[in-house]
Amino acid sequence: MAFAAIFVPNFRLQAVVRCEPELAVRPIALIDGLPPTYQVVAVNHLAARLGVAEGMTKAAATQFPGVEIRPRGKPQETTAHAVLLDVAWSFSPRVEDTAPDTVLIDVDGLASLFGSHENIAANMVSKCAEMGLTVQVAIAANVETANVVARALPGATVIPEGQEAKFLESLPVHMLSLSEELCEVFERWGVKTCKALASLPVISLSECVGQEGVRVHAIASGNGVRSLVIAKPAHCFEEFFELEDAVEDLEPLSFLLGRLLDQLCARLAARSLAVRAIHLHFTLQPSFESAFDSCSEAIRKKELSSDYVCTLELPVPCRDAKLLLKLVRLRLQSTPPHAPVQKIHMLAEPSFPRVTQGGLFVPEVPDPEKLELTIARIAHVVGEGNVGSPQLLDSHRPDSFRMHRFSVASAQPIDGDEKTETKIGFRAFRPPVLTKVNLRGGRPINVAFLGRSGEVVHASGPWRTSGDWWEEDPWQQDAWDVEVNFPYETPPSQGFYRICFDSRQKKWFVLGAYD
Amino acid sequence: MRPTSAALRLQVESALAGRVISPFRLREPEPTCTAPTGIPALDESTGGLPRGSLTEIYGPVSSGKTSILLSTLAGRTRNAEVCALVDAQDAFDPNVAQTAGVHLEQVLWVRCRSLDQALRSTDLLLHGGGFGLIALDLADAPARAVHQIPLNVWFRLRRAVESTPTILLVLSQESNAKTCASLVLRLQKETTSWSLHSRNNAGRIFHTPSCLLEGWTSEAEIVRTRIQRAVPHYIDIDRSSVSCQDAGKIVRFAVCADPRRENEPTFPVPSRARKKERKQNPG
Fold it and tell me: Quick check: B88 and B173 in contact, CB under 8 A?
């Protein structure tokens, strides 16, 4: 049996630094609490060197030059914890969610995949580093020893079986996650190290402090055996970011979104998943407006902050962060937020990656991811609803169709069904063009539209169609196919058109031309 | 002393060594890969629409441009190729297209409102790649505005489609692409066919409710072609003139309102008595 423990030291600070990597090389202090009694709850070693300490007030911490003060971010901590779990699940399905800063993993049987325990531990450290977390990893034969050693020793530690007590002997007893009461008892007894605790007689210890004492005695002896409480894999992939100063321009916003997308894609890749849709939720900066009343003083009214929500759905799951960023940028360019952005919440819907196999004799089709980007760019040019594949509606109403989202379907070449003759093409006028028609004996003899006037040489009709009489907008029209000469044009021309008389509007229209 | 030709050849080959392999070896131009339009007469004369090139079809209204477009779309979509139609004036009729055999789910339709949108969309599609056919329909755009499109735009489109398996088909009222097009067809309507004729005056059409437009015959002139067709080596002809032989050729083809499918049962031809009776009483 072998268990690994991954521990994130200074978890709250790392959760904030993960979102702003540039802070890692500067002194930083984390504050929490309610204004004006903010207190420092975490500092990094650079700030500690300058003299900033936990428990200090915000005002005192700001006295130190060069120290970055950041508020504690609970959403960032949730995300960092989710990242830790994603890394754990990328190694083994048997993971225990022990604490926000600790996960325990059953690594038994992973030798064929990842090699030795040293390799596994090193992989865990590097994978967490890719996700923006600096962790301490320990692998031992029992879960409690791994848990304690991971909290105590930096880097990656592999404890050979049978030597657990040796690794634990010099560690202080408070590393064993004792209750306050037990801590006081051990302090009174002068028991300061695990070695000292392990040397106490078990029976006497149980008589004095109960089962809790027996448990910690076993752990200190390196015999802390228990089963993992397996956590269910979560399918929530979200990232948060709160800005000190609201961002209005797209460029800096894109930079932040790109960073969040990189992290999301890395997490999904660790779990062998892909993105099916992205939900963006921006909290916008509240705007101020002033209301002047001639009888009273000027009042400044603060509006409630509004939100900006948009969803980007992908036709095929993908994990390319650059492609996703381009699609998000195009969406924001077409529908930008109406106020500067204060907070960003990004949620990715996971899905299994697309698995396709090309064929030697299948015609080349556009790459779905590249096609999605092309369609998004075209939609930015022509408008969202003006690009897609047409889908006919089950209706006899003329020109009844809708635009359907285009996706590359895996089609096979179809044999047969070939026509021996060529069908006449038709070019629709959208909207139908108002025209002036002269009739003789009920038949059109002249038409005038779009600044042109022509003589009807041949006409076929009328062909009456109507429908939807039970709806609010029924339609009824008498259609004609006409051959029109335009003798006064230079050069004279002619053409075939479909015109119709709309019985409801009592007007003539040209529906299109045959070509 | 003047250098000999052998010395000159050696000098050129050494200068180009590493960049050009066998610079003096005669290379036969490869036959152009083409795709049929689905109109046999046109395919036989032109060899089909060339892939990796720009084809321009121009002509006045009712000359048959859209019919060729629909026939080509039907053929490409039947072959499971993904096609794109950049519609500058939103003139595409999906109903008629489906009747013509186009598989609409394989067609990406871009509905534009201006020339600028159409050209930008075409450029994006060409750079996206993977399409069997990209059709740029400028037939309803004002001829003057299309004529003002700079020549470098056409060059850019031609460069973008080169070395790809995509057919770039441009429909317009007048020729604009000039030398950028590898195949240029000029269309003109020739004769029209209505369903009923006067017995006494064959040129006069009976105007009755049952008189239908049956179709017309279009004339297509091959204005320019640079399609290299596969010529057997045992035929001793001047290969440089192969592509020029087809220029100026006139092709006629018919478009019908109700094309028949292969193996579709045809209605029995009416007897002479019935035809006589019908002419006497067409209504």
Answer: no
